[in-house]
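Hi V.,

You were right to ask for the full record rather than a summary. Here it is.
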Amino acid sequence: MTPPSARAPRTDALTNRARILEVAGEAFAASSGASMTGIAKQAGVGVGTLYRHFPTREALIVELYHHEIQKVIDLAHTLAADLPPLDALRRWFEEVSRYGRLKYGVSEVIHAATNGGLDDKNYDPFLGAIAVLLDAGSASGDLKPGTEPQDVLLQLSVLWRIPPGEDWEARATRILELIVDGLRTRPADS
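Predicted structure:
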């Protein structure tokens, strides 16, 4: 007989977990003060179910961070394969911007959980995703060659410092255009 701890998770447990992460992402993007009870209610699960999956608020935030950042990392490779380099970079930046909205209110928890970023298992893959897009843009002649992914990441980090509000999207769009223009081999209006 298979011990209980070795069994595969039940389908409903996986569905609940995915739903909790989806709702938590929306809730934390709207307000860093989103409550665990509110997230459980909105996800259609009991508070006990939420705490069974995520024993603390911090555990939920860290898992949400890993889940969301992996989607962003994976998207870079897909976009680089499917779109012209400049379009791929812009589309990816838009997704990073969406992610930045989530990270705005919970960055302190993520920072603490990853030892200020020093223990962040997502750091190198994220830089790799940036490199994929920069390399494609450099090869096409659209982007300046030799741009360091770490420098682009530093520029992008401003996105999770934009406070939520009705002008958030417009402000993020303006900032991303400044970053893209700085990476291009020639200005956009030439």
